[in-house]
Amino acid sequence: MPGGHSQTLRPFLWRAERLYPDTEIVSRTHEGRTRHTYAEYADRTAQLANALDEYGIERGDRVATFCWNHTRHFETYFGVPSTGAQLHTINPLLPDEHIQYIVDDAADEIVFVDASLAPKLAGAADGAAEFDDVDFVSMGSSEIDALDATPYEEFIADQPTDYDWPDLDSDQPAGLCYTSGTTGKPKGVEYTQSMLWSHTMASQTPQGIPMEDSDVVMPVVPMFHVNAWGMPFTATAAGAKHVYPGPSPDPADLAALIEEEGVTVSAGVPTVWLGLQEYITGGNDVDLSTLDTVIVGGAAAPRSMIEWYDDRGVEVLHAWGMTELSPIGTVSHLTSDLRDADYETQVDKRSKQGLVVPGLEFEVIDENDEEIPWDGEAFGELRIRGPWVTQEYFARPDASEEGFEDGWLKTGDVVTVDEDGYIQLVDRTKDVIKSGGEWISSVELENAIMAYDGVSEATVVGVPHERWQERPVAFVVAADGVDREALVEEIEAGLREDYPKWWVPDAVEFIDEVPKTATGKFSKKDLREQYADQSLVEGSVPKNDAPEQE
Ligand code: AMP
């Protein structure tokens, strides 16, 4: 028969165990750090697989987790899919009714849950019929009373440390992750063995997020969010050391792990890296000398952040992806032609979402259904396809109908593509502000505002407006002790200089915190709902005194 063996996850661990038996997997826990080697990890993974068999999990069944990033959670990453079962990582930050819906939709039979998250899960499960047939395993060493959960160590104890791993087909479902829909119920995305395999291989190319056996990899992005961007698999493929930051790590926890474990590669949303930045500029001395690269994605990496980390010898690698893409789609590496370019040009490119990783194809379609030119100006919706891009939503023909066309995933992201092929996200189709028929990029305004000293976070949303349909309003979280009035004046004057005047927000409002979605993104929906009454922009039109707009 032509062709090779199936594309599955198992060989990645097989190789790491054989070649790097002594390389460590470290985890921050409430009780301190745990340390295991790949050899021990492989044994424990086999024990978990045996325990799942004994419990009655069969090929195709779903096993759920409700956990932060730690070694036991990582054990489920190979232990569950390599038996032929499917790992369903639940996002514990979702509202209760979404959790109930997800557990029911996925038909989860067993949920592995962290002690610190048990109250949240118990709350969602309380009286909910969706949980009637669900059993719980406590990821801590002790029982969780509220859920009648078996301790993990007891669950795997006495099981053999080898397992007869089955030969699986490439299209065997291996993972399941729900993405928060902009409207309605969360949508499930299934990852097959070959999607995860090909995503890992693409990640390992120089155009992806490559790792080596000398690397120390710390995924800060949660393991419940698209498999921590696939990093646990990629790091294993490389034979790298893993460092898991455990329950709700704060900047001080991350700093300690970076310094003490010698972290070289890390990844997370911009908020994480802004947090560390503020921690350091706030007077805490942190040795970042081992840290080569931080992969920043999930939301746009502000230019000011890229420069700040550059100054400290840490490369920010801006990446774009989606749950539907397992998740990596583009990474902002410099092409060889740009390596001699001046710093400003390089940062311009690196601030964009980047170049498509090898293996994927994309097209960008404008409002007239035409493909846009690659000139960095024209924009349209990004569509993408490839071996690790899903082709449908789990059991949701309605959402699948809407989300895909001719085999392309319609990303809902509005982008430009420049002459060199760098993709830049201008907006979500749903977040773009349409003022007087013209589009205003909320992302661009946000980045501009966040570059001002004294601004911790900023988001810009479109608020309904009688004359212009929508007008931008900026919501700013000010740093402590800032003169707010002066800050608003400075921002408004600066924006007026750099942007068309109709782009300048009609109001700058101070808030204590930008509301976040369950995946850590700014929740514009919440702000939009809060300010839907137009009170912020009524009568403020004079600021936008160009009726035709430029
Ligand atoms: P999720 O499926 O929750 O990972 O969300 C995917 C969405 O996050 C994308 O469609 C983008 O709108 C947004 N996103 C991901 N990465 C970036 C990035 N680097 N810059 C801006 N937005 C991003």
Q: Summed up, what is this model?
A:
Residues 16-394 form the AMP-dependent synthetase/ligase domain. This protein has 550 residues and is an alpha/beta fold.
Characterise this structure.
The protein has 550 residues and is an alpha/beta fold. The chain has a domain at 431-531: ANL, C-terminal domain (GMP Synthetase, Chain A, domain 3), CATH 3.30.300.30. It is built from 17 helices and 26 strands. The strands form 5 sheets. A 9-stranded mixed sheet has the order 2-1-11-10-12-13-14-15-16, with helices on both faces. Strands 7-6-5-3-4-8-9 form a 7-stranded mixed sheet, with helices on both faces. The N and C termini lie far apart (64 Å). Adenosine monophosphate is lined by residues 179, 226, 297-300, 318-323, 327, 353, 411-413, 425, 428, 519. Adenosine monophosphate binds at residues 179, 226, 297-300, 318-323, 327, 353, 411-413, 425, 428, 519. It comes from Halorubrum lacusprofundi (strain ATCC 49239 / DSM 5036 / JCM 8891 / ACAM 34). Residues 16-394 form the AMP-dependent synthetase/ligase domain. Pfam families: AMP-binding, AMP-binding_C. Keywords: Ligase.
First-residue to last-residue Cα separation: 64 Å
* CATH fold-level assignment of the domain at 431-531: GMP Synthetase, Chain A, domain 3
* Overall body shape: globular
At the fourth level of CATH, the homologous superfamily of the domain at 431-531 is ANL, C-terminal domain
What is the number of beta strands? Answer: 26
Radius of gyration: 24 Å
CATH architecture descriptor of the domain at 431-531: 2-Layer Sandwich
Bound molecules: adenosine monophosphate
- Quickly count the helices: 17
Bin the strand percentage: 15-25%
What is the C-level CATH assignment of the domain at 431-531? Alpha Beta
Q: Please bin the fraction of helical residues.
A: 25-40%
The averaged pLDDT comes out at 91
Order of strands, main sheet, comes to 2-1-11-10-12-13-14-15-16
Main pleated sheet: 9 strands, mixed
Which structural class best describes the helix and strand composition?
alpha/beta
**Poorly predicted ranges:** 538-550
